[in-house]
Design brief:
- The chain is an alpha/beta fold.
- It has two domains: 188 residues, amp nucleosidase, domain 1; 274 residues, Rossmann fold (3-Layer(aba) Sandwich).
- The chain is 31% helix and 20% strand.
- The chain is built from twelve helices and 17 strands.
- α1 crosses α2, α7 runs parallel beside α10 and α8 crosses α11.
């Protein structure tokens, strides 16, 4: 006779949870967000309190579980809506739901999205407790640092007592649109689930050494530290200008310098710079500018945009250097991308290469006008320093060392005028995440024509061009920031069946 094995140590704890109250209906967005904040605070505090108690030596007597709050919305008709809007409505009858995390951080965003939904459908929204557990790791207050082995202190595995992050269910199936929802199941109300958002918020702190709360609605990416150095100079000068609209500046370590100050008044200098340093020029209602040095390569470009996307920025732009591919170009010329050749490969599984990445009119106009404002060139004369065309992005920095016929032929057939390693990735992820995107590059070498930067040439190039290039990027974002958000968020980025939340 065979005997089934058994564990010497069995755990049969009951599950303890906070008291779950009945869902509430709201026709006012501010009140709905207050209810979300209250629920979230109650459930995360429940987890923290029990964790602290156990770490202080109390006996484990249960499994502790708390839940994300959720928003539910239901409509039974094909409501007529303002078709000019890219978001703020649903396209078909059904039950819509999303889990929510950090409603304090996303309060303004949530108020805007809910107000549009309530107005466009003349409806109420329901705020209640979801069935999705909050992982303990995501319940800690920002900046919490735990010492030592938790399992040793508790005497058993942490996951036997608390829920932990479930990476298998933390994915982008909603925003990628690669899952079909049946009419008898809930439709997604927002592009990201709460646990997906929590995952990215923690990654942002790790990669940039700044709090997610400091990120602004307008983002600049660069692949050179020179641009960051100029951005720091620009920010600190702006803070001394009493007429400036900027209110503060945050550097890695959450070092914050407020308007009128000459040095940080809070934060702590990190022992070393993080992998992708972020700097935040704070504006009213987060409408300032964040700049991130993503380093070199499409992998970094995908990684940081994967995470910043959950903050739902209004626009992001790539400013960097590129190889000019035309003999008529000069070092220092600008490239305004209106199309992309994607040979970066990092997004192939999420966004097939046959998907076109369109240029967005509002972004293109803002960038071209900014170039004109800063350089003084207008009209036909602008063509002497700026060319609009296709940018190719590759994943091999030393592509020049390969046999030339293949890559050069592809570049020529695509009509590419510039080559880099980040721009198409950032644009493609903007397309995928419905974040308006754009690219303005500066020609720093011409490898097909034997023009490589020598040390002296490089130093002069950086001195003369980086400051101007950065000023153009900042002016472009300021122009975009002056637009109503409903004008900036393009319907080009919306698929057949979209979430109501932007």
């Amino acid at each position: 006779m065979k005997h089934l094995g058994s564990c010497s140590k069995t755990i049969d704890f009951t599950i303890k949870t906070p008291k779950v109250s009945e869902p509430q209906s709201f026709d006012n967005a501010k009140d709905a967000v207050k209810a979300l904040i209250s629920l979230y605070d109650e459930h995360t505090k429940f987890l923290r309190d029990h964790f602290d108690r156990l770490m202080s030596g109390d006996r484990v007597d249960a499994r502790y579980r708390a839940f994300y709050p959720e928003i539910r919305f239901s409509t039974k008709s094909y409501d007529p809506i303002d078709s000019r809007l890219a978001y703020g409505h649903v396209s078909r009858p059904g039950e819509y739901v999303t889990t929510i995390t950090r409603p304090d951080l996303f309060a303004r965003y949530l108020e805007d999205q809910l107000a549009l939904l309530i107005k466009n459908h003349q409806c109420t929204v329901s705020i209640g407790t979801s069935s999705t557990p909050i992982p303990l790791h995501f319940a800690f207050l920002e900046g919490t640092h735990l010492q030592g082995s938790i399992d040793e202190t508790l005497g058993m595995s942490l996951r036997d007592i608390f829920d932990v992050p479930d990476i298998a269910s933390t994915d982008d199936h909603i925003v990628n649109g690669d899952k079909e929802f049946n009419p008898d199941e809930d439709f997604p109300l927002a592009p990201f689930t709460a646990q997906r958002v929590d995952y990215s918020l923690h990654r942002l702190s790790h990669y940039t050494s700044t709090s997610p709360s400091h990120f602004q609605n307008f983002v600049l990416f660069t692949n050179y530290q020179f641009y960051i150095d100029e951005f720091i100079k620009f920010a600190k000068t702006a803070l001394q200008d009493k007429n400036s609209l900027y209110q503060g500046f945050v550097e890695p370590g959450n070092l914050m310098t407020l308007k009128g100050e000459s040095a940080p008044s809070s934060g702590k200098t990190p022992e070393r710079l993080p992998q992708m340093s972020a700097y935040h020029l704070l504006g009213e209602n987060n409408n300032g500018i964040t700049m991130v040095n993503i380093g070199v390569g499409p992998s970094n470009a995908k990684t940081i945009t994967d995470h910043i996307a959950v903050l739902r920025p209004h626009a992001w732009l790539m400013l960097g250097h590129c190889a000019g591919l035309r003999n008529t170009q000069r070092l220092g010329d600008y490239i305004l991308a209106h199309a992309y050749v994607r040979e970066d490969h990092v997004l192939d599984d999420d966004l097939p290469v046959w998907v076109p990445i369109p240029a967005l009119a509002e972004i293109q106009v803002a960038l071209e006008q900014a170039v004109a404002d800063v350089t003084g060139y207008t009209g036909y004369e602008l063509k002497t320093i700026m060319r609009t065309g296709t940018v190719a992005t590759i994943d091999n920095r030393n592509w020049e060392l390969r046999e030339q016929k293949g890559p050069v032929q592809r570049l020529s057939q695509s009509r590419a005028i510039a080559l880099d390693m980040e721009s198409a990735t950032i644009a493609a992820n903007g397309f995928r995440f419905r974040v308006p995107y754009g690219t303005l590059l500066c020609v720093s070498d011409k490898p097909l024509h034997g023009e490589l930067k020598l040390p002296g040439m490089a130093s002069d190039f950086y001195k003369t061009q980086v400051a101007q290039h950065l000023e153009i990027g900042i002016k472009a974002l300021e122009k975009l920031g002056a637009m109503p958000s409903e004008r900036l968020h393009s319907r080009k980025l919306r698929s057949f069946s979209e979430t109501a939340f932007q």
